[in-house]
Amino acid sequence: MSDGTVSWGRLWTETAERVGRPQARWMCEVASGLEGEEFMEALDQAASQRGVAHLDSMLARHAAGEPLQYVLGRWGFRHLDLMVDRRVLIPRPETESVVEVALQRARSADLPIACADLGTGSGAIGLSLAMELPHDGVTVWMTDRSPDALDVARANAAGIGRAAANVRIVEGDWFAALPDELRGRLSLIVSNPPYVADNDSELEPIVRDWEPAMALFAGSDGLDEVRRLVADAGEWLAPNGWLVMEIGASHGPAVTALFREAGYDDVTVSPDLSGKDRVAAGRRPASF
Fold it and tell me: Residue 90, exposed/middle/buried by CB under 10 A (0-12, 13-18, 19+)?
């Protein structure tokens, strides 16, 4: 890249020749510390040496194959601007569909309610619930077995303002993280568990090589953790409470069978925006 006397407009143009115009703008905004209209108003200003060095570093990382989201250190998810790095999965549009289903189920319950986002990672699901559900009468518990992931989730919780007062972040493996007094009281349990088969040949190399394995892989068929969640959620849900989870595109029939065998009612599998099976949901009956 050019030295610190070049303008941000020129750097944007030069960077776009290497990575594409939208991606180049995102990189230049991060490197400059300016966003939106502030960045556009600064296009004729000279970039600082520190800004050029930051941009060069991001370009080198991207050229080495690192996902753009990690290079930027942030990514948008619904109404959130999340910090992301290799400690957590990259938030994806498919998971936004999970949040939409979870919100629909949560809004059907009478307040006050307690919700749990198990395996929260960056906090994308749980923080979306905290932001988009009423701020009064809602508590959102966010758990993960990875202390590194929870550090990211805490940083993201700090960015949502008043809604963070409703959030409780705890470390542990699935339900073991939750206080015992929540047993039988959760109106909603939502999760994006690992659901990739250990030897899945269709998994993109950029995902396998860069994203945390413990958040991806779940046994020979990818359903090991789904089975655990379906089996254990019933005793933590309140009567008529909902279990909502993200699933693999080929898992719809198998997960439907798991829900029904475990005694859930109103079992559904919903598609994501690309039309693939993505969100499984089931309701704990009043007598379980």
Answer: buried
Tokens at residue 79, please?
Answer: 């109404």
Q: What is the pLDDT of residue 4?
A: 52
Amino acid in the structure at residue 85: D
Degrees to nearest 5, angle at CA 187 with 184 and 190: 105
Domain-located, residue 268: yes
- Interval 224-281: pLDDT, tens: 999 999 999 999 999 999 999 999 999 999 999 999 999 999 999 999 989 999 999 9
51 and 126 housed in the same domain = no
Boundaries of domain holding 13: 8-64
- pLDDT at residue 9 greater than cutoff 70: yes
If we measure between CA atoms, which residue out of 157, 108, 105 comes closest to residue 128? 157
Can you give the CATH number for the domain in which 142 is found?
A: 3.40.50.150
